[in-house]
Amino acid sequence: MPLTPVLSRYWDDPESWTLDTYRRHDGYDALATALQMAPDEVISTVKDAGLRGRGGAGFPTGMKWSFIPQGDGKPHYLVVNADESEPGTCKDIPLMLATPHALVEGVIIAAYAIRSSHAFIYLRGEVVPVLRRLQAAVAEAYAAGYLGKNILGSGYDLELIVHAGAGAYICGEETALLASLEGRRGQPRLRPPFPAVAGLYACPTVVNNVESIASVPPIIRNGVEWFRSMGSEKSPGFTLYSLSGHVTKPGQYEAPLGITLRELLEYAGGVRAGHKLKFWTPGGSSTPMFTDAHLDVPLDYEGVGAAGSMLGTKALQIFDETTCVVRAVLRWTEFYAHESCGKCTPCREGTYWLVQILRRLEQGGGNETDVEKLLDISDSIFGKSFCALGDGAASPILSSIKYFRDEYLAHFERDGCPFDPQLATLFAGVPA
């Protein structure tokens, strides 16, 4: 299955982030086309294309847009979730850094479709280079007449604001993001009502991922059949797969949905020389891990789901046999414990105790009951927390014990970790 560079096709051009470069690659042609269509026709086109949300859940994008009530007399808002911060997930940041205008054009088309006159891009405040590049791109779009009043003479008006968050993983959850955008503490809200009915400022709101929105202009420009010629029937189109870890050539690989890790590793030069695959994540650290037995699982929403995990953000973290699975899971769990907003007891208390037990195991103070305690606490969190952060914290523990229970047991049988952490580093074996 060949790669399909669409969003990434000119990332290596000199100054790929400028308006001039974007225009040379058909930039804003899709906007001109969309503005000649009725808003509902734009929604129908995206719905017919089958574009699914690229932020993790895979919900149909056009369907989400169609949930916005029309003729309600309230302002409508479009919010782009650019708060990418899960371990291993690294597709939206490079997209915004290399081609911010792809996102800006997508925002204008999406906002037009849902009849919104105000749009926001909520970005992590720590990634200052991306913030500056987005702000520059928005300024260029305003100067060129793609934003502001009477866009391209169509009579459509749109104000676009780039908002820098304070840097909290919980704000990747859409309702927590909206709370933060309103100036309040970033914590998830109870649903219903859903954002489509009462979102930002209690008005109808669409929240979409960066890659989802950036994928809209190519659909408008090239058509539904072109988009559906890639991927699978239920998961059509192209997407960005992020390979990191013990792989020869880590990076972004844009391919049709349904490609396998075995095929992607051929493009990436395989697992690092002299080693073999041990385990990997199909969609970031919050998704149940896979092993070398899952190399041929189709990487689309249905294929990964049927194999017992989630496609998530397509963050493929690759780990070879030098890696201690307990140590890797501990690092992820420390992240989730730190980033828990504390609103609900299962996640707030559960992640704390998961960290304590994992640390004890790793340091040689564990016992044979610790594995059952980890399973018990994970079960108390999974599906019982206020939002999906708790599920994300429990998933790697449940799946790692499923596949590597013996490795957990070896930690107390040998009074500590049986692995040398130096061997798992990328510089292992490199002369000083």
TrEMBL record:
Pfam families: Complex1_51K, NADH_4Fe-4S, SLBB. PROSITE patterns: COMPLEX1_51K_2 (PS00645). Its cofactor is FMN; [4Fe-4S] cluster. SMART domains: NADH_4Fe-4S. It catalyses: a quinone + NADH + 5 H(+)(in) = a quinol + NAD(+) + 4 H(+)(out). Keywords: 4Fe-4S, Flavoprotein, FMN, Iron, Iron-sulfur, Metal-binding, NAD, Oxidoreductase, Quinone, Translocase. Residues 326-371 form the NADH-ubiquinone oxidoreductase 51kDa subunit iron-sulphur binding domain. The keyword Nucleus does not apply. Its EC number is 7.1.1.-. GO terms for molecular function: NADH dehydrogenase (quinone) (non-electrogenic) activity. Belongs to the complex I 51 kDa subunit family. NCBIfam families: nuoF_fam, PRK13596.1. NDH-1 shuttles electrons from NADH, via FMN and iron-sulfur (Fe-S) centers, to quinones in the respiratory chain. This is NADH-quinone oxidoreductase subunit F. It comes from Antrihabitans spumae. The gene is nuoF.
